[in-house]
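Checked the freezer inventory, then went back to the computational side. Two predictions to log before the end of the day. The first one is the construct we discussed on Monday; recording sequence and tokens without edits.
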Amino acid sequence: MTVNKQLTWREKISYGVADMGFNFYWTNIATFLLIYYTDVFGISAAAAASMMFMIKIINAFTDPMIGAAADRTSTRWGKFRPYLIWVPLPLACAAVLTYTTPDLSADGKIIWAYGSYLAMMVCYTCINIPYNALSGVLSADPQERSTVNGLRFIFAFAGGTVVTAATPALVHWLGGGNDKLGWQLTMLTWSVFASLLFVLTFLNTRERIVPVSTQQSNVWQDVRDLSQNRPWVALFFLALIIMITITLRTSSAAYYFKYVVQRPELMATFVPAYMLSAAAGASLTPLMTRFVDKKKLMMILMTITAVLSSAFFFVPKDQVWLMFALQIGMGLALGPKSPLAFSMYADTADYNEWRTGRRATAMTFAAATFSQKLGTAIAVAVIGSIFTQLGYVANAVQSAGSQAGIVWLMSFIPAAFALLAVAVMFFYNLDNNKLLQIQADLDARKI
């Protein structure tokens, strides 16, 4: 059943601010966790990369289970909103433990890292998947979805900007020179702010689209439906590839400025420059989708990303302004990809309901986050493998080979994945006219 499609700006903003909270976690993980493990926590790059890869794989397989559970949740607040008040506290506790350095042996630290990181990622998934699914039931209007997701990612990139700009200073200030204490208290600070934003979203949003009361399905039926949903399959691989592209550059940036440029303080402005430009790009998404089909727009944006990323290889290490110019350009190009992708996921949920008569919104988004986490795991594994092969040594002068590997991770390697993303989009077969027909047919069935 679908009711009252029109969204107020209060609801749109209230939905969006939660993604700022998610980025208080996610941006820390993507930008700082690997270098925290190697340079503060005190384990090798190989051990850290292997651990993060394994946890991402394990956690990826929990996504469909959590999505299935969310689809089958029934409360007076809806299916997905309750998770925004059920999970913030466990997530905050797990995150603080992840950024805590215990006085243990090398093996003990690795066990601690596995346990705390897995707990954090499972808790993150338990709240993030229902939140993603919520965007698919706020409205059935594709343009409204583009607007909601565009606004959401403005907040997301703003959160990422704040985290990357403020985290190094917070670590120093809160730790008083003790980086181990600084990281623990910094994560506690971000967790408290994130929890408040999640509650705000819960209080000010409403679920308008619910499955018809006669719908019957099971988890395996949901999985079969998705496997036969061609546009969703295309998005699955798109998310996997884009996440590899982004994670390679984001996780390598701290190493790039510390060991190649030898100006680690630039990280405090380099990643925020990307985040701000990405927020600007995301804000333009609803306007662009009025004139350009989502599929074509995604292909254009990923082509631009590949070109700009390749150009980074040729930047001399003393040309900081050029590094920032290319980073801002990539932010503008990649900013719209997130609202585009999440709007397209909601479209594939409609397509699935239109094709099969069954709706599984959370499972649609859960399986999508599965691919994102798998992409992150692959990217971290690539970085760890390259660092190990080239002889990376933490907090030491790097060899020429190690420095070259870091530069490739910032340029040609992610560029190749960006071009692969363009190729994948040829298999996505939902255009604007098809979506209008699907919505008309679904509305007719529910009269």
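The second is the one RB wanted added to the comparison set:
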Amino acid sequence: MKSNINALGNWLMSWVQEDGAIHGFHNHSVWGSNPYRWADFTSGHSTWASPLMAALSRIVAEQRGSSLEEQALQMIRLQTSRFQEDGQYMHIGFQVGEMLNRGLIHNMMPNVALGLTALHGRSWLPAEAMASIQQAMLRNLQACDEIYPFKKTRNISNQEYCRLWGKLLYQQLFQDSPWREHIQDDLNFMIENYHVIGIPDEDCEASNRYLGDSTMVEPAEYYGLMIAPLVQAYEMFGEPHYLQHAGGLCRHLARSAWTDENGQTRFNRKWLLRGGEWIRLKEPMLIAGMGMSLYGIARYLEHQADEELAQFLEKCDETYAYYQTPRGYMASATGWQNEADIAPCAAWHTHDFYYLLHRHGLVEKMAPKLKEPYPRISVLLGDQCMWVEEGEHWAINDYYFQDVYKLIGRKDEAVFGRDLGWVGGERSLPDHLLFPNQPVFIKTDEGIYLKADEQTAQNIDVSSIADLPYLGLWE
């Protein structure tokens, strides 16, 4: 089984705005939160979605196309120009929404993405675009060194490694790096103070999540932010211990994985220390969002052959394909029993898209297909609710006579809302937000049915991760 990379890219581009913003329902399928849960209702740009820039930069480099080239440049212009007064990027709240305007990792991810964008785009990016990337990365990295000083705050491993990855990329791309003298010392500090040997066996290395806290290690989805900079450090400095430690982190991922009830290979949630013994937690855990960790393994395999890790990548590719819908997005997670299982996060999906392009390469004539309209209604059924989208409209809807969610929005809007039209008055949403063609599904004791006529049903793609079977039309 192979993922449809073209369909995933097309779905992601349906969230991209003319000004370069990447909209989405920013559902954090690892922590189970989203702006709806925090009453923020933001569906606008998120810096966590920035790897899409790097993916488009590569596509343009290999399949030159004027419309996609301009779109990629506009995304660069947006990400390199929207700053807060203190030098942090704007739109860093992700699953919390615009109420959150501080945090290290959501500043660091766009720096990595901008660096990768420049690496892929060196053959075609105009000088002014390269200059804007250089200036933005330098400004933000220096600002965050002041706001979140290394070794002096409650440092989180993946965030510090992501900071170092951005600095390594900057040093590779530009001649004026202010971090040349101490970046290897910082990398060695991370290895010495965070890495834990022996989880789940002596060939593996995990990473403590917090400096000085040895009771938990990082969740699996963040390991790519540690592996990739170690591989890059090996390439830049030629010291083999960086690659060796990267390999230990890779094996931790592969040997901590588990097989779900559908026979698919899944990332573990994390390991916790209890009574001197490490306990693995499996769920609830993401499906979409494995991308950067798998990218890290793929980068390691470029330097060190390893059949076990190669097979792990193949199995995870099959997991992507199994949980991918015809529209291109994947089920987000399992185990939450709420919207976190089914609501696809455009931001996480950009990480998967970047990895899948890296691993499998471009589909022939990919660039012009990324913006083609999708003519059908797409539905993903979950146990408690469903994701529905058609054109610019999207919804997290309820089963018939289970009125819990009723969230609706548009891909071209920076906010979404709850459909309270039945209440009336000022609580009613503007007409342009309403989603008039939402299909109705009924959940019974024996299964799930679509309440529609046969002609309407022919225009609906139905996928399901619900425990109850989907049984077709309610007749």
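For RB: The mean pLDDT is 96. Residues 268 and 471 are 32 Å apart (CA to CA). Let me know if you want it refolded.
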